[in-house]
Amino acid sequence: MNISASVYAADQRCIMAQLLPLLPHLESLHFDVMDGLFVPFHGLNQTLFRQLRDSVDLPIDVHLMIRHPQSWALRFAEMGARWIAFHPETCENPLALLRAIRDYKSRAYLALSPHISVSSVRHLLEEADGALILSAPPGGGDFMPEMLAKARALPAGLPVCTTVKCKDTTPGCSGICRGISW
Question: Which pTM was predicted?
Answer without folding.
Answer: 0.85
